[in-house]
Design brief:
This protein is α+β, with helices and mostly antiparallel strands and 136 residues long. The protein contains 3 helices and 4 strands. The protein folds into 2 domains: 58 residues; 72 residues, no CATH class.
Length: 136
């Protein structure tokens, strides 16, 4: 008789434990169902397209710089002249040079494509600024 009662109590406890576990799992499944409904496949495609557009546009934004200050005229003191390279992720951009002397400062700009200027020879300072920008 005692064994039957103990088995009966054991089965009741087992049922209660499993019932609470089952209820817990049902609640989790309902929450998961709500989340998956909000993650519609079209929404995911749109998010993926937006990320791809951001990636492509960020490739073209300026993100690399190289700056070199120098003195092109040995008779004057100070490194007041400069070369600045500003590039995007594809190593395209501009190189700005400023040559300072006692009477004036002359500023030049050169277009950079694929990490080099194909139209005009670069000075050693401009090459250094370009190399620094490519490495940054």
């Amino acid at each position: 008789m005692e064994t039957e009662i103990l088995l009966y109590i054991f089965f009741i406890l087992l049922f209660l434990i499993n019932a609470s576990t089952f209820t817990f799992l049902l609640i989790k499944i309902k929450k998961l169902s709500k989340v998956t409904k909000s993650l519609d496949i079209n929404n995911l495609k749109k998010i993926n397209e937006d990320l791809e557009n951001l990636k492509n546009s960020s490739l073209k934004s300026f993100q690399k710089t190289g700056i070199v200050k120098f003195n092109p005229f040995k008779s004057m003191g100070g490194n007041l002249s400069f070369a600045v390279a500003i590039l995007n992720a594809l190593n395209e951009g501009i190189l700005i040079s400023g040559l300072h002397n006692r009477e004036s400062t002359r500023t030049y700009i050169k277009e950079i494509s694929s990490g080099k200027d194909s139209k005009v020879e670069l000075s050693s300072e401009e090459k250094k600024a370009l190399e620094d920008a490519i490495k940054s």
